[in-house]
């Protein structure tokens, strides 16, 4: 579903992403791990089609993101680490706006808005302005806005920063429903415990280079470390 080949991004002479290749199949959850500044956000922005690569290819569900940007973006949902929502719209207005942009029929929008806002305990705040929402509440509205669109690929940059434990549980349940329907998830995370629990595969990026990639058992064998993902991560990035 996501095929990345020899992806490189340079800022001047600095190489933020260095010859990265990876594959995420339909229904898989891929965890992209690495220390601060490793190149995770830069990679996710290139997959989302909002930053162009210096070289390399990104194919999403058979569509080349650089060559057919609009077609690719219809298949992709991207949730950045800093959730942006329009402060002068209410949660319901924002979700209707996104629904209209993506041509979701209005009855379907209403059902999805009630379903997701109630899942995230926000139904009573549906008609309040987003400017008054906390970081975590904005994140939930954004997650609702992408799930409502039924994308093929969801890109999450640090998805659970700002979410309370119950919302994290809700988030995990919702993405598991998505993957069962064949949606692929690409997720940058610092929370190694969560990556270990929910990801089918992980990739560890360090100084722009993928230093290890595959199911956690494979990483364990490669690193010779039989411990947790945290132990493997610390060993590989030390
Ligand atoms: N627009 C930019 N211009 C110059 N350097 C950048 C830009 N965006 C990111 N970088 C640099 O690229 C590296 C990787 O950044 P980033 O992908 O945000 O890391 P991560 O998300 O893994 O913490 C960092 O050294 C960062 O300073
Ligand atoms: Mg980042």
Strand order of the largest sheet: 6-7-8-3-9-10
Helix/strand/pairing class, anyone? alpha/beta
Looking at this structure, what is the CATH superfamily? P-loop containing nucleotide triphosphate hydrolases
Count helical runs: 9
Identify the CATH architecture: 3-Layer(aba) Sandwich
Number of strands: 10
Bound heterogens, unique: adenosine-5'-diphosphate, magnesium ion
Distance between the termini: 32 Å
According to CATH, what is the class? Alpha Beta
- Outline the biggest β-sheet: 6 strands, mixed
Percentage of residues in helical conformation:
25-40%
Number of domains: 1
- Rg from C-alpha positions? 18 Å
Strand portion: 25-35%
Overall 3D shape: globular
Sequence stretches where pLDDT stays below 50 over 5 or more residues: none
Mean pLDDT: 90
H/E element sequence:
EEEHEEHEHHHEHEHEEHH
Indicate the CATH topology: Rossmann fold
Features:
alpha/beta; 9 helices; binds magnesium ion; 39% helix; 238 residues; Rossmann fold; binds adenosine-5'-diphosphate; single chain
Notes on the protein architecture:
By secondary structure, the chain is an alpha/beta fold. It has a single domain, classed as Rossmann fold. Helices cover 39% and strands 25% of the residues. The protein has nine helices and ten strands. It has helices spanning 40-48, 69-75, 91-101, 106-119, 135-148, 165-180, 192-198, 216-223, 229-236, and strands at 2-11, 14-24, 29-33, 55-60, 63-64, 76-79, 153-157, 184-188, 201-206, 209-214. The strands form two sheets. It has a six-stranded mixed beta sheet with strand order 6-7-8-3-9-10, with helices on both faces. A four-stranded antiparallel beta sheet has the order 2-1-4-5, covered by helices on one side. Helix 3 crosses helix 4 and helix 8 packs across helix 9. The longest helix has 16 residues, at 165-180. The two termini are 32 Å apart. The model has no long low-confidence stretch (mean pLDDT 90). Bound molecules: adenosine-5'-diphosphate and magnesium ion. Residues 11, 16, 34, 36-42 line the site of adenosine-5'-diphosphate (ADP).
